[in-house]
Design brief:
It is a single chain. Strand 15 (293-310) and strand 16 form a beta hairpin. Strands 6, 7, 8, 9, 10, 11, 12, 13, 14, 15, 16 and 17 form a 12-stranded antiparallel sheet that branches. This protein has a 3-stranded antiparallel sheet with strand order 1-2-3, with no helix packed on it. It has helices at residues 54-57, 154-166, 187-198, 204-217, 220-231, and strands at residues 18-23, 29-32, 38-40, 60-62, 68-70, 79-94, 97-117, 120-135, 141-145, 170-176, 181-185, 244-253, 256-270, 273-290, 293-310, 316-333, 336-350. The two termini are 21 Å apart. The chain folds into 3 domains: 18-69, no CATH class; 72-233, no CATH class; 237-351, no CATH class. With 351 residues, it is an alpha+beta fold.
């Protein structure tokens, strides 16, 4: 199952102001703001943007205070790509032995804008291509790509066959102009079509396992999470160039405790591209005792990278995020102690 955990930026969609036929005591126009209060139009210029057509022309709207509002500005009939690649290199050390493993996975989508409804978009999402590669500690490299011929290796060929059955199929989505998913439909048809293609390729028992996998991978929640973690990328407030916003959280999962913090900076705006710098770190630790053995773990990771946004559409032109992680687990029973350690580098790119 694809795991596309990149980064999630929480956003709040602002409603358009509604113009009314009133004038203030000085003759100025009046509007109803988001709180439902009637105020002079001049007090609300930074939010009353649709009247000037700004929302129709750009994904980044410049306000009077030199700040920018972010939103999607997609066009009906246009197709927007999401080409994602995740590569990972792992090094582990245990019992005096070093083990190195590398892997990579890509998934490519096309999103066709079928309809624009106010601030919402109706999309047709199509699976275009899947590929995967791995190299184990023995140096043997295995790979498949649904755009290429079926591999000779039996196990790899099975993966190719499953993902090939999905390739080319489509489902529907509706999103708002901040990238939040409102609804997903048509996934049941994709699953049914895939299972129909696979029924002569696998045993009944294997088909049952594949069905469970497809139901998980192609669930509404999985598709929603995948899209929002990749494309729900706008700040929840107006920003000036050079300003930043942060997300931080405390982690508490059973015996594991820690903190996570991500900082994003609106770095520059040039040649139709808004560049956002991303940095952060996570530290977690914990211990647990079972059957007289105490396991103590420590994990430290950092992320660093950038997101380039197209200023006309708001779509990602390029994203590159690197996560570096070090981890160690010590097992102790009485005076006996053994430590396993490892490190990994995960690079996620889009388009």
């Amino acid at each position: 199952m694809l795991i596309l955990a990149v980064l999630t930026l929480l956003v709040n969609c602002k409603e358009k102001n509604q113009q009314i036929n009133e004038t203030g005591g000085d003759g100025s126009g009046m509007v109803v703001n988001e709180s439902g209060n009637t105020v002079p139009e001049s007090e609300n210029d930074s939010l009353n943007l649709s009247a000037s057509g700004a929302f129709e022309n750009s994904a980044l709207v410049k306000n009077e205070d030199e700040s920018y509002s972010f939103h999607y500005n997609l066009k009906k009939g246009e197709t927007y790509p999401l080409n994602m690649k995740i590569s990972q290199n792992q090094s582990m050390k245990a019992n005096g032995q070093d083990v190195n493993i590398s892997s990579g996975r890509t998934v490519n989508f096309d999103y066709l804008v079928e309809e624009v409804k106010g601030n919402n978009y109706k999309l047709k999402a199509t699976f275009k291509e899947f590929s995967e590669n791995s190299q184990g500690p023995d140096g043997v490299r295995l790979s498949y790509n649904t755009s290429l011929a079926k591999p000779d290796d039996k196990d790899v060929a099975q993966s190719w066959t499953i993902y090939k059955s999905i390739t080319g199929q489509s489902f529907g989505m509706e999103i708002d102009n901040k990238g939040r998913v409102i609804s997903v439909n048509g996934l049941e048809k994709v699953i049914g079509n895939s299972l129909s293609k696979l029924k002569n390729e696998f045993t009944a028992e294997e088909q049952n396992v594949i069905k469970q996998m497809l139901n998980a991978y192609l669930s509404t929640d999985a598709i929603k999470t995948q899209f929002e973690e990749s494309l729900n990328i706008f700040p929840d407030k107006n920003l000036k160039i050079g300003e930043k916003w942060e997300d931080s959280q405390n982690i508490s999962e059973g015996p594991v405790k820690g903190t996570n913090k991500v900082t994003r900076t609106f770095q520059q705006l040039e040649n139709g591209v808004a560049k956002i710098k991303v940095s952060g770190q996570q530290d977690v630790s914990g211990n647990e005792t079972q059957n007289g053995v105490t396991a103590t773990m420590k994990n430290h990771s950092t992320i660093d990278g950038y997101i380039d946004l197209d200023t006309e559409s708001g779509w990602v032109r390029k994203m590159n995020i690197t996560k570096k992680e070090t981890a160690s687990t010590t097992f102790q029973q009485g005076e006996q102690k053994e430590t396993e350690s490892g490190s990994s580098i995960i690079v996620t790119t889009i388009n």
